[in-house]
Amino acid sequence: MKLPRDLSGKDLIRSLKKFGYEPTRQTGSHIRLTTLQHGEHHVTVPNHDPLKIGTLSTILSMVAGHFQIDRDELLQQLV
Length: 79
Fold this sequence. Notes:
Layout lengths: L8 H8 L5 E6 L2 E6 L5 E6 L6 H15 L3 H8 L1
Antiparallel strand pairs: 1-2, 2-3
Helix pairs in contact: 2-3
């Protein structure tokens, strides 16, 4: 599945709430999200509009790795 080109950090944070991620702290424009599902996991999302494709790809890969699912499957669940 192709990555969205116009996704903002705020939209990604809202979508990741489906997986139990909640903001725990913020430094400048970077927001750290934490989930306790399947063990504790942290991911940092820049609050930029739009997110760079490489940044989005890395974040999605980290989340997919934590939940042990394919990145494309994760993307379908987020949309």
